[in-house]
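Readers of this paper often ask what the protein records in our data store actually look like. Below, we set out a record of this kind in full and without editing:
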Amino acid sequence: MVLAVLLIGCGRNEPPADLVIANGGEVGSLDPATATTIEDLRICMALFEGLMRVDPATAQPVPGLAERFEISPDGRTYLFFLRTNAVWSTGGRITAHDFVWSWLRVLNPATASEYAGQLFYIKGAEAYFTNKVRDPSQVGIRALDDLTLRVELVNPTAFFLDLCAFQTLYVVPRAVIEKHGDRWMRARPLAVSGPYQLDQWRLNDRVRLRRNPRYWDATNTHCELVDLLPIRSATTAFNLYERGVVDIIWDKELIPSELYPFLRTNEAHRVNFHSFNYLGAYFLRFNTTRPPLDDPRVRKALAMCIDKQRLIDKILKTGELIAQGLVPPYTTNHLPVAGLPYDPAAARKLLEEAGHPGGRGLRPIEYSVESAGPSSPHAKIGVELQEMWRTHLGVEVQLRQTEKQVHTKDQKSLDYDVSRSTWIGDYNDPNTFLDLFRGNNGNNRTGWKNARYDQLMDQAAVQPDHARRAELLREAETLLVRDEAPIVPVYYFSGFNYYNSANVSGIWGNVLDIHPINAIQRKKSAVSGRSSVAASADLLPRTTHHGARNTEHETRSTLP
């Protein structure tokens, strides 16, 4: 397999990358306005930048294309002063006018940005998005001159700087987009604002990034060439790592589950194994627009028959915490909630009250999950849920596996019954999780709308007292996970990266699991081989290689 990689790479006369990363599923979009999956957003962070960027060690927002900022005493007005050396990779200054245009583009419904709500904290932004206001000058985003941007918020927003470091609020090249429309990412050379340029984007092969010499902080961009491989198979990713083809595995799902307990506890492999608290949640979505799941009693009955600890102990074996609510317990400014308990007897009573004793009169329910290889836990969890719901409730469940892009599309179009889901926090505040399930949020994907929930979220948004705000958010979360249950939290992720710290530097464990690629470097003195897990690796089946840096690939969703 390695020989095939080398031969094909030579045949294309391409230099080897300085750093190779197993990135997960196939990339769907590299447009910051429309990118939604973690695989997409990681690469967007390398190609583009916002007013702020993420500190690789702390995941806190720090100045990016804005050299500095000022906040008014009432916390509602921000002035950002752009760097004089902030330029596009193709030449030309990046201006405050570019930011105004980029943000208004996100708010244009035709862009179909699922993260448009990130801008609703700005005065007039939501009204502009919903066409209640047509005049863009009524939106609180204004370029005072080429280098000064003024932003007026509806209310003080503690995490607004975090949003300015999030990919949706990155600046994009107006001239290129107006010329090429939806195909603007195919323009070559592509004008970008971040530390890397898009060198190649080959389906089922890789995304190759090349260092951007015009980036304002180019001297601190360590790798000249970086390859990100679209790998969904854990066996493939791990074998490539063991053979020295891959330097970093970002995600726990790309480590074979049968090896995880060994790798986590074995002294010899601690140089590779890196874990940390992580703002990520695994949960189920219910399509509340379809009977019988439009009845909260049915949803709660299904939720109360899920033995979450059994799923963790039997399938994951990776030390996750059972989830009571959607928001991870180590989130800043969060109060814990009491979710629905595991109580099959009470669940049967609820189903009987809904008119379906013993599951009678219920059609088979479809459980949707994306295909991710035989070692993926998702399908295994589906099988366990199928058994639990049949055993405790008499409900028949059909499993539906689709490639990742189809799975995501089905969620967006509400073409599912129950769908496995994840969400990764965009910033360290409960709002990044709870805001999802507002009635107008593009990432809701349940069909659930609740006026009381939206009211609580609105009240929390304008509440200056942190303690009172936390109480309002807890009330909203309780409504979400216990009283109405359009979702079922299952477990909280434990953060994980797999790389040899003797060979790779510039990666720090942080609660957002954000690791800017320009901060990472592969040490020049590092040997080409990785530490071997000989006994375990030999148990894994070998995989076939189909192209340069390409792997056995299963095409393709939080958030995570």
In short: The longest strand covers residues 273-286. The mean pLDDT is 90.
